[in-house]
Amino acid sequence: MPGVTPAIRALQSAGVDFSIREYEHAEGSRNFGREAATALGLDPDQVFKTLLVSGGGGGHHATVAVAIVPVSSQLSLRAAGAALGLKRVEMCDPGVAQRVTGYVVGGISPFGQRTALPTVIDETADLYPTVYVSGGRRGLEVGVAPDDLVRVLGAVLADITAG
């Protein structure tokens, strides 16, 4: 399989059924999730973006965690913090997100990150037989069953969208 990413290897290792969807990433595009949904003709509620948040104190005491929400929605920092058991969270600095995960912004997959991080997934993932998340590079999405997404990541489901 050409261009195998750590995310693909992690899914193969876990024995998870998944599909691969590729598209041509438009240089300069910054709305990566929406771009993926449009390019692949997928429902934006079914395509999820992987966001990193930090909380629980600064410096070495900060907790970095993953929040996965539909590209059609915005993350509620308050709800994500509550679901993760953190008093307050903020969006993670992009440089820190890249360093912690091993992926570039716009291609951060919840699978195959350098370190397993606490993860919360918006509960709407359960509405679909398959949801799509980044496959570990811009222009690559993987489709997985929500139950597999939760199980492989050791994640929790919660209402973490704003509005």
Notes on the protein architecture:
With 163 residues, the chain is of the alpha/beta class. It has one domain: YbaK/aminoacyl-tRNA synthetase-associated domain (YbaK protein), CATH 3.90.960.10. It contains five helices and eight strands, in the order αβαββαβαβββαβ. The strands form two sheets. Strands 4-2-3-5-8 form a five-stranded mixed sheet. A hairpin with a 7-residue loop joins strand 2 and strand 3. The longest helix is centred in the first third of the chain and has 9 residues. The chain is globular, with a radius of gyration of 15 Å. The N and C termini lie far apart (41 Å).
Chain-wise SSE layout:
Blueprint: H1 6-14, E1 19-22, H2 32-40, E2 48-55, E3 63-70, H3 77-84, E4 89-91, H4 94-101, E5 119-122, E6 131-134, E7 140-144, H5 146-153, E8 156-158
Parallel strand pairs: 3-5, 5-8
Antiparallel strand pairs: 1-7, 2-3, 2-4, 6-7
